[in-house]
Amino acid sequence: MTIQLTKIAPRTRTARDYFLLTLIPLAAIAGCNMSGGDQQAANTAPSGAPAAAAQPSAPANTLLAHDPAAGQTAVDPYPDPEKRPTMQAQVVLDRLGFTPGVVDGKIGASTRNAFAGFQEANNLTATGELDAPTTDALRQWTQIPATRVITVPADFAGGPFYKVPTGPADQAKMASLGYASLDEKLAERFHTTVATLKTLNPGGVPAGLKTTAPPSASPTPTASPSSASTDIPQPGPPSYFHGGQQIRVPNVGADAIVAGSVDDSGWAATLAMLGVGSDQPKVDKIVVSKSKGTLKGYDTAGKLIAMYTATMGSTHDPLPIGAWKVQGVDRDPKFHYNPALFWDAKPGDEKATLPAGPNGPVGVVWIDLDKPHYGIHGTPNPETIGRAESHGCVRLTNWDAARLAQMVKPGTQVLFEA
Length: 418
Fold this sequence. Notes:
Radius of gyration: 20 Å
Distance between the termini: 16 Å
């Protein structure tokens, strides 16, 4: 993957957050991805870390998870009528740092990778299945429900929400590459998909709740652009959900931001928007496996503490096998598009600086490596992780990338293996 690294002026950033890159193509090209995971050790199993945010408007505390203590039963005023065992396991694994990609209640490659990571960390046979030994090991977290009901805060729903253009020239005209709709923003906050949120809220009502007048879909609030269809920006599509609405969401957690723990208010807002907490373990070594499609994080004792499904490389831009090191982290990065660096650039494309935002080519963060033009980063398309190709870099969901960014430091070892 060819990227161009540029040094940027820090905005209240520390020494470890200094490099800005020029990475992948645009959202359409998919670009590299980075992984991040949060977990801590509890007894013999790692425990989870919080989730991250995406756009610079901090969500209200009503979105945070509030879990019962171990051994206690959750008191849920809106109990879910369905058990959802797969989603419950995904929710727990996501908290522990062995993330299933999107939390959707389905068994796929990313969820199998999450099971395998948890099993390896807990000295179980790595079957990648929710087998009896794994179910027993996860039993200490059975008090955590698969879903919870939240009320969408008005400030969270306020937007603005604009359609993301497909070309770099038009993307460069945007003030930010934010979410196109409230639906998309909610899905990213709860590490899921819009389709899953709609399934959990049939007719716009949380599953298990009854109402005489279900809320109808309302247009996403946006600023009003002029009427010409070629104007930038253009309003995003109408949203199914709206501010003040009660909805059922995957019960992702470990999302608390400890006061004073984040030195950049913009980054703290991003973490909050993504449901990623500030308390993350530290990794000493990262191993990216091309054949397995995974990124693993190990502590100084060599214990596996995080594992994510990742997208890496392609025929045109293969993963650079070898040993590398983290050079720095750029949070909420801009993207310097240079068509000369991309084999699939369109004729006539010119250099452009794209604004920051969760829907930018590298998502919310770029982890720079000492291999020129390569790094680990987020993505505007979390559902494609493990399925699409990248321009050589390692791409993760935005929430995993945000976690990992807090776990590394300059000098962290990174091994790319076949």
